[in-house]
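pls design
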């Protein structure tokens, strides 16, 4: 069975083809991605209307590219999957509309996938795929959550951010430092040349005793520290502030994830979402988990940020586990706000 997946929830158009054979891990046959980063750069952030229009321009050429590089044609597709939410409404509608139209034209069923479930399961595309159960740290531009994952579709929320997401903390701090958009990778690059101990920034909720996060205060502290540097700070000071900001975010993410590991008694952690590409986070988490005798699993680096492969994969795993809510009536909706726990009622209601 072959699943064609579409991702268009924010500023990346992703398409991928995944093959599912019975009792075997799903296999990625081909994927293609177009990032809108350059287009949004001029505005310092994602402009939703421009994002939607660009998804429209890119989605079909990317689909053709995927089918060609997999050596397949559209009639070989058995199920068409798309990101149903959460994300930007207009952007989601593009992927959903194309997927459902394609399903109708081909006479194939469609499946709306939760974007975060895609991230959560993306390490199954890596060479050393994890086994269930595991603790998952989901760190993207819009979400920061710790989840207990007992199987496909069995997700329980352990803790989450009460304000900004970790990616947002990176992005907003980067903006304050004049690093443009998207801030996370830019701040991380600059941080490599800075001293992470140069500025004493807060580690919000570090000792709160629970697994929740808060990053809004950190952003204010970065703003205050930046102002104190005066109108013309030297480049090294900015690098030091970037390194100190990154260290504060990473310290909190690592401490809470290790606490979740200890609490759950699990020996496996999965890190997913764009911030999972952060190399300092990876190094600190690897070291901390090793001390607990645990292993950290990541998706391949290029599949940390949004992509179509994780959507096709999540759909494939749901199909394999008999959990796919397939539709063939040509109707669809998108869920711009859609808590992940809603797709796992059995676990989270208990
Ligand atoms: O998962 P993702 O691609 O999109 C969302 O669903 O939000 O995550 C994007 C986020 C952005 O906030 C971006 O700045 C952050 O991931 N990010 C990073 C790095 N690469 C991407 N943050 C820190 N370090 C990185 N290397
Ligand atoms: Zn994402």
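designed seq:
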């Amino acid at each position: 069975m072959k699943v064609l997946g579409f991702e268009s929830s924010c500023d990346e158009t992703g398409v991928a083809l995944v093959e599912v054979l019975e009792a075997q891990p799903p296999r990625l046959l081909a994927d293609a991605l177009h990032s809108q980063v350059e287009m949004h750069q001029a505005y310092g952030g994602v402009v939703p209307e421009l994002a939607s229009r660009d998804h429209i321009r890119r989605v079909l050429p990317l689909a053709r590219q995927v089918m060609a590089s997999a050596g397949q044609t559209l009639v070989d597709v058995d199920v068409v999957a798309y990101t149903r939410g959460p994300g930007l409404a207009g952007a989601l509608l593009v992927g959903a509309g194309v997927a459902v139209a394609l399903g109708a034209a081909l006479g194939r069923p469609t499946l709306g996938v939760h974007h975060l479930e895609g991230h959560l399961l993306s390490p199954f595309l890596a060479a050393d795929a994890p086994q269930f159960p595991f603790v998952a740290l989901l760190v993207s531009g819009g979400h920061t959550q710790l989840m207990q994952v007992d199987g496909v579709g069995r997700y329980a929320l352990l803790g989450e951010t009460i304000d900004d997401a970790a990616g947002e903390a990176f992005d907003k701090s980067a903006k304050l430092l004049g690093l443009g958009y998207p801030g996370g990778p830019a701040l991380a690059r600059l941080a490599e040349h800075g001293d992470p101990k140069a500025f004493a920034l807060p580690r919000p909720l570090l000792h709160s005793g629970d697994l929740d996060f808060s990053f809004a205060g950190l952003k204010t502290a970065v703003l205050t520290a930046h102002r104190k540097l005066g109108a013309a700070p030297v480049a090294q000071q900015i690098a030091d502030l970037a390194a100190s900001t990154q260290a504060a975010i990473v310290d909190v993410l690592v401490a809470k994830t290790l606490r979740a590991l200890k609490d759950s008694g699990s020996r496996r952690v999965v890190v997913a979402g764009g911030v999972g590409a952060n190399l300092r986070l990876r190094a600190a988490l690897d070291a901390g988990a090793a001390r607990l005798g645990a292993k950290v699993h990541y998706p391949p680096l290029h599949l940390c940020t949004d992509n179509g492969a994780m959507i096709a994969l999540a759909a494939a795993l749901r199909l394999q586990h008999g959990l796919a809510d397939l539709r063939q009536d040509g109707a669809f909706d998108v869920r711009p706000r859609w808590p992940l726990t809603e797709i796992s009622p059995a676990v989270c209601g208990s």
